[in-house]
Structures are given as C-alpha cells and as structure tokens.
C-alpha cells in the first residue's frame, strides 16, 4: 500500500521468483528496499547455517589437544560438569572468524564470491607486506564472566604482530555489509579455537533449548594457562557448514580459499 505495488509469491512448495509489479521503476525499487529491511533482522533469528573457519586440525595440534583432554579427564581435582562428551572432535579443531546465514544456493555462491573478494583485496595485500602468518594456540580462556559456570572453553590465538586480528575484522565487516553475517556489538572478531563446549553433549537438545549446560573450569584455567596447543602457518579459510562431516573428518564446505 505504501508503494502502490503488488507482490506475487509462488504457492508453498512451488518454485519461482517473487515478482513485484508497480506503476514505476522507482516504486518497485522502493518496495524491494522495504522488503529487504523487513527480512534482514529476521534472518539472524534462524539457526546459523555456516561459518568462516580456519582449520587448525594438523597432526601436531591434534596430538597436543588429545594430551590436554587426557590431562583434564584424569585429573583428581574437582571439576563439576566435565565429561568426555563436551570436548571438541580433534579432526574438527578450527578457528572461528564469524557465523553466516546462507539460506539458498544463490547466497552460498554470493558468500564464495565474497570470500574471493576478501582474499584479493584484504588478505593478499597484507601478506605481501608482512609475509606468511604464523598462528600459535597457547593458553585457555572462557566466554562468560564466571569461571565456575562455563559453556565454552577455548584456546587463545596469537599471530605475528596480531595481523590476523586485523584481517578477521575486515573480512567479517565485509560479510556484514553484504547482509550474510550479523554485526556484533563489540565489532571485533573474538579469535578462538574451541576446546570444550557443552553443546557437543546431546547437540540437538542443546540447540533447541535456551538453557545451556555449564561446567566448572577453574582448575582447568589454572592448570593450562600456559599450555601450548601448537603452531602452524595460516593457509586457508573455509565456508564451513554446521553439523556436517567431510571425508577427512573436518566440516563440509561450500567454498574455500588458499592463502
């Protein structure tokens, strides 16, 4: 009514375009913008479908992670809520840059093009200037403000001159600009490698429940504050798909770039 247009939508279960019909191109464009403005905030209420990841599952990192896991599980110190099911699968160890909502094939293709754009315009110029980026995973930290009630424990990421932090911020901001990611309040990517997460326990139940199980991480934080989980040269970014397993044990991806 505001734009004097009509909207033709395919029936449920039918393929086809959504068609806008109006008296002028200006009014049709205005209707399209209003629809986009209405849909944009609703996307982030859906379940996350994909995420930008840096694989960190090389043999050395996996081996060190397994030693960490064994040390925690065999510890005599009290750690309520700690059990094997909340540890990450070593073949899925990764650094998370940002989460995405890719709802159809066209959006997946858009994300792949966006990642290629970031490679040419953000990553390559910085690497040409600074050289290969060495990533070190050392020490542990947690997401919330109470170490006795933790849902996620992660390995801290360090890079030469903190170059990765700058690159990650620019990449995620670009994906926000094109509408595939959500702008977080801090506007800064929290680089991390998840080690333990209570959602790994009964994942589907956790995903559908607002309540998250917690565990006491105080003794782990103290015992492993300087633990080194390995180091490696950053060589790729994947657009990984949640809740999938590829033939190599990592996540399936809809696209990736080599650095």
Describe this structure in words.
By secondary structure, the protein is α+β, with helices and mostly antiparallel strands. It has helices spanning 25-43, 59-73, 105-130, 163-177, 203-208, 218-223, and strands spanning 5-8, 19-22, 50-55, 94-100, 134-142, 152-159, 192-197, 228-233, 236-241, 253-258. The radius of gyration is 21 Å and the shape is globular. It starts with a strand and ends with a strand. Mean pLDDT is 92; it is low at 204-209.
Summarize this structure briefly.
By secondary structure, the protein is of the alpha+beta class. The protein has six helices and ten strands. Helix 3 packs antiparallel against helix 4.
- Main β-sheet description: 4 strands, antiparallel
Q: What's the number of helices?
A: 6
The succession of helices and strands, N to C, reads EEHEHEHEEHEHHEEE
Shape: globular
* Helix coverage percent: 25-40%
The chain-level structural class is: alpha+beta
Mean pLDDT across all amino acids: 92
Task: List its salient traits.
259 residues; 34% helix; 4-stranded antiparallel β-sheet; alpha+beta
Annotate the secondary structure layout.
Blueprint: E1 5-8, E2 19-22, H1 25-43, E3 50-55, H2 59-73, E4 94-100, H3 105-130, E5 134-142, E6 152-159, H4 163-177, E7 192-197, H5 203-208, H6 218-223, E8 228-233, E9 236-241, E10 253-258
Antiparallel strand pairs: 1-2, 3-4, 3-9, 5-6, 5-8, 6-7, 9-10
Helix pairs in contact: 3-4
């Amino acid at each position: 009514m505001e734009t004097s247009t009509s909207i033709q939508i395919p029936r449920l279960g039918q393929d086809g375009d959504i068609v806008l019909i109006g008296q002028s191109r200006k009014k049709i464009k205005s209707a399209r913008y209003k629809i986009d403005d209405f849909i944009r905030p609703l996307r982030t209420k859906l379940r996350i479908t994909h995420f930008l990841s840096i694989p960190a599952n090389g043999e050395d990192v996996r081996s060190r992670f397994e030693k960490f896991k064994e040390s925690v599980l065999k510890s005599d110190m009290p750690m309520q809520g700690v059990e094997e099911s909340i540890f990450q699968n070593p073949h899925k160890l990764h650094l998370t840059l940002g989460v995405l909502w890719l709802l159809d094939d066209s959006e997946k293709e858009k994300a792949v093009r966006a990642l290629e754009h970031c490679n040419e315009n953000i990553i390559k110029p910085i690497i040409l200037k600074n050289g290969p980026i060495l990533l070190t995973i050392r020490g542990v930290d947690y997401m919330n403000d109470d170490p006795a009630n933790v849902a996620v424990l992660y390995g801290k990421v360090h890079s030469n001159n903190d170059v990765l932090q700058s690159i990650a911020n620019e990449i995620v901001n670009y994906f926000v600009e094109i509408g595939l990611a959500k702008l977080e309040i801090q506007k800064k990517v929290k680089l991390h490698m998840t080690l333990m997460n209570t959602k790994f326990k009964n994942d589907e139940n956790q995903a559908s429940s607002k309540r998250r199980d917690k565990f006491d991480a105080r003794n782990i934080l103290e015992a492993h504050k300087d633990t080194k989980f390995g180091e490696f040269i950053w060589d790729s970014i994947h657009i990984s798909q949640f809740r999938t397993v590829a033939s190599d044990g990592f996540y399936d991806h809809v696209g990736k770039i080599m650095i």
